[in-house]
Amino acid sequence: MERTKCQSSGTYNEIDGYYKTGDLIVAIFIFDKGGQKIWIYWEISAVDQWKIKNYQQIPALTFAITQLNKDPTLLPNTTLGFRVYNYRNIIRWVFVSTLSLLSTWGQMCPNYKCDRKDELMSVIGGFDSESSRQMASILGVLKIPQLGHGLVDPLQSGQKVYPSFYRIDPDENSQYVGLVQLLLHFHWNWIGLVSRRDDRGEHFIQTLTPMLKQNDICVLFYRMFENKRWLERAQVHRISIPSAWLECLVIILFGNPGIVEVFVTLQESNSSLRKVWILTSHSEIAATDSQSGWQSLKPFHGALYFRVHRRDVPGFKPFLRGLDPFRPKGDVFLRKWWEEAFKCGFLKPGETSLWWSRNCTKKKLEHLPGTKFEMSMTGPSYSIYNAVYSVAHAIHAVSSSGSNRGMRGKGERLLKVQPWQVLASLRNVRFNNSAGDEVSLMRSSKRYEIRNMVFFPNGSMAPVQVGWIDPGAPPGQDFLIRPEKIVWATETPPFARCAQRCSPGHRRHVPEGKPVCCYECIRCPEGTFSNKTGTGTCCDPCPEDQHANKNHDQCFPKKIHFLSFQDCIGIILASLALFLSLITSLVMATFMKHHDTPIVKANNRDLTYVLLLSLLLCFLCSFLFIGRPTKVTCLLRQAAFGITFSIAISSILAKTVTVVLAFMATKPGNIGRKLLGGQLTNSIVLGCPLIQAGICAAWLGTSPPFPNLDFHSLAGEIIEECNEGSVTMFYMVLGYMGFLALVSFMVAFPARKLPDSFNEAKFITFSMLVFCSVWVSFVPTYLSTKGKTMVAVEIFSILASGAGLLGCIFLPKCYIIILRPHLNTRDHLRMKKN
Q1: Which pLDDT belongs to residue 367?
Q2: pTM of the predicted model, to two decimals?
Q3: From the CA atom positions of the chain, what is the Rg in Å?
Q4: Which of 385, 680, 716, 745 is the residue whose CA sits 20 to 30 A from 412?
């Protein structure tokens, strides 16, 4: 059977391009994005738009292929070739160019290649989402790896919808992070967004808007423009400008150079749009044509724009200097590009001079300004360079695997590698390029430079790098901006805010129905502070040991609060305790001096000494409550107070019982005579305090008091106090002491009218009234106070109740002993009885 031949379409001709033969072929699709019109072929009448600056992508490709073919280790005995296609930014030519790679040269018959000895290994392109998607729909069927730009959907770039596509452009999300950090640095939170209406523009809006909202940055407006190559000037002037645009001072512009040119035209006719513009790297700031160049971007003076970071590749500048339009070596673009870049011409055969233009003979690339052509590798060129090397490393990995190692002998060329094998290998490719950067198609570059567009009065323009963003760097080194290097369109940075930033000591409050950026500033609540301008909706609480000052803009250490001996109230209470102790000692000395007198002997002399000694200890235990609380004083003071007072009240109870029993003993046959003696009184004096001691021992054994710091009860002060441990045990001590006092009162009250010259019952009754009144009023007062006032209340209660006992019981006796000694005689005692 005769073999079927591919038929020519009649109208189809081989796609315009730049070819270099090789064993394995890498195809690259180059297209323009607006700019000067040039002729691709001398004999072709069609015209194509091409950016002068974008031509560098072709030398970047040829440089990478040349370096690879010289490398004896990566692809030994195998050469890489390439085919460069210019599909003129027309979608029909995307299909034509892609299908031509899969057909016989000059004939459109996909997947049927006659007389083609080279093997297509990969395709580099396209350079926007639309062309990349169209190419991927064809190449994905045949599993030919495609390294391109533009597909931003995670499912698409995640090898699911387009399994043969790999991105080579940098990660856009890191640029969005840089945008947010830039806005936060200048405190701009009232901005506008402008983008083109396509999938990348929608992805820009959908990704950036939540990030702005998370950082309380409000979008006053956002506007999307149709993704057209150009708009006629009349159409541009008909674009309506909402009032929100005039109010907004900072606008972020996402789009291609065509969108940039739209706003250049708008600003030329409307000066109110001349504000601070922030342009993303997609706008590709470059000379749009050779006549106006950077001059057309003058309305963007002072703008900030992002540029993909890249490093200088060793050997690339000498390679560029070696480009010679008289020896283009197959580069069909070089000669015509040279004429457009230098605005010159070449002599044609038979011509002797160029009367209409300058001669191109003595022109060099170094003579071109950097705004037209950079001698260092640009971002897109750097992506192409890394893409070529990625494909080479993938081929090397396939050829080094066990399944392919036997496909060639020593010195043989590698011809059996299939594109689908390269496609699978690209996922795992990771290497360091000659510039020192790590390259991985699964981990794209994240670093961007932040530049300032500055125009000078003489018409020249100088882009100034003012910072960078690198999310992969350590915290604190991931973002840098130098405001002092920025030249603004106005004299000062714009105030792109809905409200003034809150001063220190205030917080933000958003009124109901208002945007989060249109807030009010209110004073920080008590105990909180803000020491920075622009604090959020909440102030920071001061540490526990500090308090906010009057302005609530900083915290100071709290004053330590306790009852010290240097305090006025501490001095008074200590002096009073010392005075009462001295008085008690004098009374005891007086009683001991007159121990043989009837008034001392009456009602048990020994009980009198025990009572005086316990009162002395009660007054002295007050000193345990004064001063800085320690572990020892906290353990001793309540127990000492409870036990000593229990001894005192027990002694009074014993004295009262003695009076009652003595009266009962005067009646014949009364049992009181048998009880009257030292055994009963000793039992009362010893037994009752022992019960209190048992309560205190249980308290100290289970939940003892301890020193404690109270940070919250008093504003601006730290209460250093003794935490009672168990409040129940504390009130049990007080309750038992009150119980003894009540029993003493109930026994003494009926005996107050017994006939006796030195009957103490009436004095004991009154003293118990004073004692109970003091401690009943103590409880509510104690509970309603804090800090040293609480301690002072307890000390005062101790001193007042002790002084009541001392005064009511011993003051009348001392009066007789000292001032009326004639009454302190046995004869007077008999006379009183008669």
Answers
A1: 79
A2: 0.66
A3: 50
A4: 385
